[in-house]
Specification:
Flavin_amine_oxidase; 17 helices; binds flavin-adenine dinucleotide; alpha/beta
């Protein structure tokens, strides 16, 4: 079976798509990612930052992930000049094109899909090809009784589909227009109270069937199905066309050259100046302009600011005047799923052939997926891990967990990104908690004074995906353009 017939997204789900990614110089692109004030290799970073502080900008964007860069590009299209301040030494945030075992890899988000209109349009606009891999996967390793069973992929997919599809009974009525999640307020009020675990409980599944799907719901939630809102996954199902196949297929494509290739093209087009290694600590809105203060004490001013950092980071920035409680409480509770690690590894000796593993909630590794065969005879795989106690940088620890599912398998080495502990993400993909969508969500999508917000975490459509980041960047740029026109 072609491996793009099954799939996953993010964590708990089951991605099977492998990509023939052109091994363009991902790292070199990253190293050369800065434009504008940071472009000159010879120019000292401090000089560049000082120069930026004295230049007149219409808008300062905080954060150079997909949401922030999209906002800057949109503002340029409206004739506004933008400065981007980024905490890290690279662009991309929760997308991170890196390299491992001589391969280009995505340590964060990587998959895009034609059902995701915003990011798909960007790829077309900048002529970035989408890539997929036609490799095959033999088996699915599934929980069975107290252990695991190796099941031919077609049989396993049919079984998962039959258990998973009823989880979404009624979603067509709940989200008849997937990009307008509030269209059915009465139904939504009830549904948004449910955690994914509540919905699983309603289904009264057998122990084995429960284990078939709670790895997905628990994984998306950041470790426990009790944390994630049912409406989060239900809306993704609706956006995918209300079918298992539609939902499965959203992880089929990657971007040629990696996510950084598209983002770099957008950044270059934005004409924005970018300062890297510049974490923002304070944002002061005087009513007539905004001052952004970095951790190192440097001030930048502009008429407007777009805060394009993850929601989980809002609580780490001092806003003056203070943000209303809706913003602070959501940031404290968190939208970005906790505990998320993405692990790349080289494996050999698989008794299950090429396989996907979909263990149950609570197992130290979540979905485990083959990416491609390597010329040294090993297989490049990646896995998600929601267990903060597993030291995934230690190959023998990962191996002993993997061997519980596939006896004899060997892990040669690993490369890990722990998003939950990363100070500039404090979590992985967005997964709202029960009550957030019907509660503070519409408020936190709005600007406060001269400060607007952009991130996939507050998107109306594909929140939790690159597409949602692009959508949110477009929205924030519109909000600021309207404000700028009214305050001129
Ligand atoms: C492991 C993983 C797998 C995923 N898989 C997929 C997938 O396959 N497909 C998909 O579509 N999506 C996927 N996602 C989700 C997707 O990556 C995100 O939704 C998207 O990248 C978020 O973009 P953003 O711009 O909203 O936020 P971010 O990418 O987090 O960007 C925010 C930026 O703000 C910066 N920042 C933070 N604090 C400060 C500060 N104080 N001062 C200045 N800058 C600051 C950060 O460094 C960062 O660059 C995945 C995410 C993860 C973690």
């Amino acid at each position: 079976m072609k491996n793009d017939q099954i799939h996953d997204q993010h964590s708990g789900t089951r991605t099977a798509s492998r990509r023939t990614v052109l091994r363009t110089a991902g790292a070199a692109v990253l190293a050369a990612s800065a434009t504008g004030v940071t472009a000159g290799v010879a120019r000292a970073a401090a000089d560049a930052a000082s120069e930026a502080a004295s230049r007149p900008y219409d808008v300062i964007v905080v954060g150079a992930g997909y949401a922030g860069v999209t906002a800057a590009r949109e503002l340029k299209d409206k004739g506004l000049k933008t400065l981007i301040l980024e905490a890290r030494g690279r662009i991309g945030g929760r997308t991170w094109t890196s390299d491992y075992a001589g391969q280009l890899i995505e340590l964060g988000g990587g998959a895009v899909d034609p059902k995701q209109p915003n990011v798909w349009a960007e790829a077309k606009r900048y002529n970035i090809a989408t890539v997929t891999d036609g490799g095959t996967i033999d088996n699915y390793v599934l929980p069975s009784g107290n252990g695991f069973a190796v099941v031919p992929i077609a049989d396993a997919s049919a079984r998962i589909k039959s258990v998973f599809t009823p989880f979404f009974d009624g979603v067509q009525q709940l989200f008849p227009q997937p990009y307008q999640p509030f269209a059915q307020p009465a139904l939504l009020n009830d549904a948004d109270k449910l955690s994914m675990q509540d919905r699983l409980d309603q289904m009264r599944l057998s122990a084995d069937d429960l284990k078939l799907i709670n790895g997905t719901t628990g994984g998306l939630s950041g470790g426990s199905s009790k944390r994630g809102a049912y409406t989060m996954l239900a809306q993704s199902w609706a956006l995918s066309g209300y079918t298992y196949e539609g939902y499965q297929s959203i992880n089929t494509y990657g971007l040629q050259g990696g996510t950084v290739a598209l983002l770099q093209a957008m950044l270059t087009d934005s004409g924005a100046d970018l300062v890297l290694n510049c974490p923002v600590a304070k944002i002061t809105d005087s009513g007539s302009g905004v001052t952004v203060t970095t951790k190192s004490g440097k001030n930048y001013t502009a008429p407007h600011v777009i805060v394009a950092v993850p929601v989980n980071l809002w609580k780490t920035i001092t806003f003056s005047p203070a943000l209303p409680s809706e913003y602070t409480s959501v940031s404290t509770a968190g939208i970005g799923a906790p505990n998320v690690k993405k692990i790349f590894m080289r494996v050999t000796n698989s008794s299950a052939g090429t396989f996907i593993a979909g263990p149950q909630e609570g197992f130290p590794l979540s979905t485990t997926i083959p990416e491609r065969q390597l010329s040294d005879g090993s297989t490049l795989m990646f896995a998600f891990c929601l267990d903060p106690t597993l030291d995934a940088t230690n190959p023998s620890k990962v191996q002993s967990v993997l061997q519980q599912m596939v006896p004899g398998i060997k892990v040669l080495d690993t490369k890990v990104q722990y998003w939950g502990a990363d100070p500039y993400s404090l979590g992985g993909w967005a997964c709202r908690q029960p009550g957030m969508l019907t509660g503070p969500y519409r408020t936190i999508q709005q600007p406060r004074g001269r400060v607007a917000f952009a991130t996939s975490d507050i998107a109306t459509g594909w929140s939790g995906y690159i597409d949602g980041a692009v959508e949110s960047g477009i929205t924030a740029a519109k909000q600021v353009t309207t404000l700028a026109a009214s305050t001129r």
